[in-house]
Write a structure and sequence with these properties.
Length: 306
Amino acid sequence: MNYSVDDLHLFTLNVGLARHCSDWNWKNIRSPFARLYYVTEGRANIMLPSGMYTLRPDYLYLIPAFTTHSYFCDSPFSHYYIHIYEGLQASRSILDKWIFPVEVKAERQDLDLVKRLCEMNPFFQLSHSDPDTYDNHQTLANNLQINQNRPFADKVESRGIIFILLSRFLNKAIPNNHVKDNRIQQIITYIQDHIHQKIEVGQLSDMAFMSKDHFIRIFKRETGDTPTAYIIKRKMEKAEMMLLTTNMPIKNISDALGYTDFSYFNKTFKMNVGTTPQQYRKVNQIVSADAMGSSTNENYFISHRP
């Protein structure tokens, strides 16, 4: 799987040092951005869909976007946190194409790189806030705007550091090619490349040279979802990112994702995410988590599902 670096659009959202004393305990966290940690001292645990992991000093940890996870900490624990957002320039996520290890041993220079990233981006170290105090999506949108308006040299250096740290995981990553049927893999690629358009199942079955019923059966066998469920899931993830990272009117987001019926888009979003798009943008707020009790914090998007 060969990709151009030019297709990888990464932005630093938040970066800082967090110190805890048995206060890093948060459940069912889910965000539209990836998290990268460098642990400096102490121990903590993180529960991911793949299992429980113990976070150790001098190791790097990566949590992909849209991964539900929980934290457990009962002793002093310190780590640097970096939130990485993959921009909307590409129709599909390059990072989604790989299965990354959760943990890698940090290289000798990595701590200096992380410290340099913090030094360059003091405005991304967010102030301490009560976990019951919520902010709106504007915080993330503002950070992205700050990123865009920074001096070009700073943007190049920051992105270079992120690339270097991410490369530690890419060295051990494996292609995410769990789909064995090449016809279905080609259809998935088509869906990803045309997520902003209306996509019909009959259209996909014709492309795969299968009857519609046979195509649905094979697609579900390979992916675990029906074609319709898969398309909706990917569209709703894209909608979440657009709601949280842009000020685009919700009707425009609906149009941009190929929905000609705005009420149907609202209904579909609520069925899959648990709130209407308007409620999601207003209520699905940023909550202080990583640095509770410290002078900096990491903000988490909490999905309020029934």
